Amino acid sequence: MQTSPGFITHPQPVALTVVAHPEPRSFCTAIADRASRAATHSGFVLRRHDLYRDGFNPVLSVEEYRRGFSLDTAVQAAVNDMQEAQLIIVVHPDWWGGPPAILKGWIERVFRAGIAYDYRGQDIGPKSRVGLLQHKQVLVLVTTDADADVDHQSLRRYWSRNVFGFCGVHNSDVRILGPVHGSSAGTRKLWLKDVENLRFNASGTEIHSSSSP
Ligand SMILES: Cc1cc2nc3c(=O)[nH]c(=O)nc-3n(C[C@H](O)[C@H](O)[C@H](O)COP(=O)(O)O)c2cc1C
Hints:
Layout: E1 2-4, E2 7-8, E3 14-19, H1 27-41, E4 45-50, H2 51-54, H3 62-67, H4 73-84, E5 87-93, H5 101-110, E6 117-120, E7 128-131, E8 137-143, H6 149-163, E9 173-177, H7 185-196, E10 198-200, E11 207-209
Parallel strand pairs: 3-4, 3-5, 5-8, 8-9
Antiparallel strand pairs: 1-2, 6-7, 10-11
The chain binds flavin mononucleotide (FMN).
């Protein structure tokens, strides 16, 4: 955006928060609220997709599968916001070692070829995969009841490697918060504060907390 000769202002960076929990009073939703606030405090304009609240349909239909793009305005809005966002924050509970089905379906419908990754090469000849999200920062926050690191591995692998790694993101930050069950009010307060104190760098890839030592 050019406002006067020689002086260029950039529009504010965009953060996309995607939250998947059916209970608005859940700890998970509170974490999403704090993470969104942290993004706003870091100078981002926020776009928020609350999948249960919005009634997102996670089913990739046979028509959409064959067509290769979506006529569903909810998917189109998600694609637009995802493409525009420099920062993507995903918040969900650990359900059987992965995200709730609604979020899995969101990934399946939004992260499609041509949007999140693509295959490129000569017309005739082998094509190689390119990730199209490589310039984005990613933070995934997962609430869980499991405290053993081995139980977190499937979540880390799914987000860091299978989803965002595949799409070219090298440094997705996956943070597991828990065990929530049996935690004290004070501990949950600290987790919320830690998330609220996160600061995101709009131009680079660094994510840091303003309160951590
Ligand atoms: C359908 C379902 C599946 C779950 N699967 C797991 C699981 O595999 N491992 C685990 O530690 N907790 C599991 N939980 C517990 C949630 O992870 C836990 O309740 C949640 O993270 C607590 O925070 P919340 O208030 O955000 O829900 C499951 C809960 C539900 C409802």
